[in-house]
Amino acid sequence: MATVDLVLPVYNEEAILERSTETVLAWTEAHPEHEWRIVIADNASVDRTRAIAGELQERHEGRVALHHIPVKGRGIALRIAFLTSHADVSAYMDVDLSTDIKHIPELVDPIAAGEVDVAYGTRLHADSETARGWRREAISRAYVQVLRRLGGLRVTDAQCGFKAISRRAARELVPLVEDTQWFWDSELLLIAQENGYRLREVPVRWVEDRDSRVAIVRTAMEDLHGIWRLRRGGVPRVMRQPGAGA
Q1: Residues 78/9, Cβ–Cβ less than 8 Å
Q2: Segments in the chain forming alpha helices (H)
Q3: How far is CA 237 from CA 20, 70, 88, 196, 204, in A?
Q4: What is the per-residue pLDDT for 43?
Q5: With bands split at pLDDT 50, 70 and 90, how would you rate the model's confidence at 246?
Q6: pLDDT at 211
Q7: Active-site residue list
């Protein structure tokens, strides 16, 4: 049995936070193979998100924890949640639960078993089931091609909000990730790949949230800037202790 933190990074999600948290909690109760904790990473919300998260923490003492991060930036929220976690495995998912949570074991179990260092969901694998608009689909596929050609990342989908990492890998990799926004995921995978960490893709069922606040075009431009930064400056190398493997 492993200890697992399931992180929900949130910004102004008062409408769905309680429902999504209770849904994930119910799922963990049906899967006692690990010791689960939900970590709500409140990313400088200005609505009732923080208050709702506090109520959930009080209601489910020991099973729900709140991190209030006063500085906005999705990458900042994930960085803090992962680096402060003492769990064997840290995972995160988007609070809208666009990715079917039935895939959590496929994400977590290989890491808990010591087979994998980082696992990530993919919406673009041949075995994935994805329902989303053509515009978002086209931009996502184009971005992956750019990431593969210019960045050298060998994945089918870098930006799916569904990833997990071992505690050791998080301590070694996350401090090297510079991005604080949406390129955070891609940069983490690039650094892990180039430093020889064991990665595994998890084909998922994913349904687009029509109320998503992600600005697709702006995010894509920020991602291209991140790729150029790494291409120009190089992917940072992990300083391991003598005798430590990937």
Answers
A1: yes
A2: 17-29, 49-59, 74-84, 104-112, 134-146, 167-173, 184-194, 216-233
A3: 37, 30, 23, 10, 30
A4: 93
A5: very low
A6: 61
A7: 185
